[in-house]
Every structure is written in C-alpha cells, then in structure tokens.
Amino acid sequence: QVQLVESGGGLVEAGDSLRLSCAASGRTFSSYAMGWFRRAPGKERDFVAGISASSGSTYYADSVKGRFTISRDNAKNTVYLQMNSLRPEDTAVYYCAASPYGLATRKSRYNTWGQGTQVTVSS
C-alpha cells in the first residue's frame, strides 16, 4: 500500500494557476489509478479528476473540465493536478487518493488518502 503527501496549495486570485503535487511512497505506485478530490466548506468530498495507472485514461468532473489537467510520473511516484483559470468556487481542501480498482469517480473505490492541501481562490 502507498502513502500519499500533497503539496502546492495556497492563496491565489481568480484567474491564476496552481499546480498540486502528490508524492507517493512505496514501490507499487505505478499499479494504482490515482484521483484528486476536493471538499469545500460545508460540502461533501467530491471527485475532481482521475488518471489510470498507465496514464492512458483520464476523467474530469464537469466543473473543472478544460481548466484542470491531471498527470502522473511513475518514475517519480508523483501525480499532479494543474489548475488553470481558478475561480472562487474552486476553494477547497484538495486530496489525492489511490485506487487499486482502476480509474473511478466514487470515493469508495479509493483505499488510500493524503492529508489534503488547502486551495483558496479570492475574487
């Protein structure tokens, strides 16, 4: 099983960009599909983006499609979330997660989670 640590969050203005990183420990990282989720204040933790183990497939929530890009570097055991054209409604704690069941949007398919990184977008 992998352990995950997110970084790259911060306070930005609307329209800015941020890149989140999620570093994984363990030698089995390349066998997991990876996902990014977020939890806005007072809301549930929602799916943002996912990528298959081989990077062959990606999937995005409609709210971020065209603005966010998920990628991974299996040699570095890291998954990224490039976030462009940020909006105040993107403000949330962002979590990365690992799925042994393939690319998925449901939280229940992910069995390992990072501690989260805060992203705040001011208007």
Summary tags:
single chain, 0% helix, mainly beta, 123 residues, seven-stranded mixed beta sheet, four-stranded antiparallel beta sheet, 50% strand
Summarize this structure briefly.
The chain is mainly β and 123 residues long. 0% of the residues lie in helices and 50% in strands.
Tell me about this structure.
It is built from no helices and eleven strands. Helices cover 0% and strands 50% of the residues. It has 123 residues and is mainly beta. The protein is globular. Strand 4 and strand 5 form a beta hairpin. It has strands spanning 3-7, 10-13, 18-25, 33-39, 45-51, 58-60, 68-73, 78-83, 92-99, 112-113, 117-122. The strands form two sheets. Strands 2, 4, 5, 6, 9, 10 and 11 form a seven-stranded mixed β-sheet that branches. The chain has a four-stranded antiparallel β-sheet with strand order 1-3-8-7, with no helix packed on it.
**Tally of separate helices:** 0
Low-confidence stretches: none
Mean pLDDT: 96
Tell me the series of helices and strands, N- to C-terminal. EEEEEEEEEEE
Tell me, what's the shape? globular
Q: How many DSSP-defined strands?
A: 11
Radius of gyration: 13 Å
Biggest beta-sheet profile: 7 strands, mixed
Ends apart, CA distance between termini: 40 Å
Which structural class is indicated by helix and strand composition?
Answer: mainly beta
**Beta-strand proportion:** over 45%
Percent helix, as a range, is under 10%
